[in-house]
Each structure stands twice: as structure tokens, then as C-alpha cells.
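Customer escalation, tier 2.

The customer says the design service returned an amino acid string that "doesn't look like it belongs to this structure." They asked us to rerun it and document both sides in this ticket. The original C-alpha cells are below, unchanged.
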């Protein structure tokens, strides 16, 4: 037999309304936010990240660092002192970068992001990103990276586990998915922007990579 329900209490914190019917303080506190990316390299980061990242820190020293940053963000927003929003924003950026670093160190495909830490591969990736629709060849990418073809292939395979042109394909499709989900550009236009001469060829490559169609990604944005 269930007992009577406790009355619902409404509390406000950081301009967030919380409804609860439990006594005492909550055992979990959620901090939500949104980061906006504008630089070209940031677009690459977004294109290569999974939809969801879950980090389980346990009792590691990393947990203490995240807790410190989280508490500092909370205190700044709650205190409302001069410059609090700017401080909280910078702390949130630091928290995101630390989380991203842990993710990259733990997942098997983190080499995609590590390519940016090597100057030759970073040059090649930047060239791809500046002009994803360009008809890139291995010779052209090696020239951008200022290394030989063999050296560029070796760097990409060692760091990301793929050849430069295979990485280019994944990058193009990742950027296309991002544009389909965030802009109103037509599928044909997006396909052309990332180097596909026909919409059908783009759709086939997109389906092989993501197991869905460009149309479904576009429809999910609309709905």
C-alpha cells in the first residue's frame, strides 16, 4: 500500500525552475549549456565527434578537477557578481576541452582529432577543410603538407588508422551531415559543396557511412 504523496515544492536556482516532492537536497545536480563553434578547425571537431559522449570518471583525479570547475561555474552564476557570465563561459569552455581530451584519449578512433597535433597532417586536414569540394589527389595533399606522399600516408595511418583520401571521404560526409542538420541548403547543393558531382552518388556514399539517407537527416531537422 502506497503512502500519501508529498506535496510538490517549486524552487528556483540559476533562473531554472525545479519541481520536487522529495525532502532534503537533491542527490544530483545538472549543469546544462551550449557551445557555439565558429572557427574552421572547430567545424572539423564537430564533424568528427559522436552524437553522445559519456565519461565515467569514478574516483580518478579527473573527477576532482571536473568537480572544481563545475562548482566554480555554479558559484559564478549563483553569485551574480560583475563579470560572472564571462568567467562562467570561460570555465565552461575549459571544462568542455578537458572532457574532449579524456574522450580522445580513451576511444579507439581518437586519431581523427590527433591529426591536428601533427603539423604535416594538420596542414593536409586544413586544406581539405578549406575546400572539401576540391578534387584532391594524394600528390596535392602531400604538397599542402610539405611532405612526400609516402610520409603523408604513413602519418595518417599511424595517427588515424586510415589513408588520407579515405579520411577525406569521411570528412566530406561528416561535414555534409552537419550542414543537412543545421542549414536549409538543398541536398544537391550540399553534395556539390563536399565534392560529389551527382546527388545519387552522394546519397549512396552517405548511406554507406551513416546507414541512413540525406533526406532523413534533413527531415529530422524540419521536424
Amino acid at each position: 500500500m502506497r503512502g500519501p504523496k508529498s506535496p510538490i515544492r517549486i524552487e528556483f536556482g540559476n533562473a531554472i525552475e525545479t519541481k520536487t516532492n522529495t525532502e532534503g537536497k537533491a542527490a544530483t545536480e545538472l549543469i546544462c549549456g551550449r557551445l557555439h563553434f565558429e572557427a574552421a578547425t572547430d567545424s572539423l571537431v564537430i564533424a568528427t565527434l559522436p552524437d553522445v559522449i559519456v565519461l565515467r570518471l569514478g574516483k580518478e583525479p579527473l573527477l576532482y578537477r571536473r568537480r572544481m570547475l563545475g562548482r566554480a561555474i555554479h558559484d559564478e552564476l549563483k553569485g551574480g557578481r560583475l563579470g560572472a557570465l564571462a568567467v562562467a563561459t570561460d570555465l565552461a569552455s575549459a571544462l568542455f576541452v578537458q572532457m574532449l581530451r579524456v574522450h580522445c584519449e580513451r576511444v579507439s578512433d581518437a586519431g581523427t582529432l590527433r591529426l591536428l597535433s601533427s603539423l604535416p597532417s594538420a596542414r593536409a586536414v586544413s586544406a581539405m577543410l578549406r575546400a572539401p569540394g576540391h578534387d584532391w589527389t594524394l600528390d596535392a595533399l602531400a604538397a599542402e603538407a610539405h611532405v612526400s606522399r609516402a610520409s603523408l600516408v604513413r602519418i595518417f595511418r599511424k595517427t588515424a588508422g586510415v589513408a588520407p583520401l579515405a579520411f577525406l571521404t569521411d570528412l566530406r560526409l561528416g561535414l555534409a551531415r552537419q550542414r543537412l542538420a543545421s542549414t536549409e541548403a538543398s541536398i544537391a547543393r550540399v553534395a556539390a559543396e563536399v565534392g560529389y558531382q551527382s546527388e545519387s552518388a552522394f546519397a549512396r556514399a552517405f548511406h554507406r557511412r551513416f546507414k541512413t539517407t540525406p533526406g532523413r537527416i534533413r527531415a529530422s531537422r524540419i521536424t
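Tier 2 assessment: The sequence is consistent with the input. The beta strands are 9-13, 16-20. Residues 1-107 form one domain. Sent an explanation to the customer and offered a walkthrough call.
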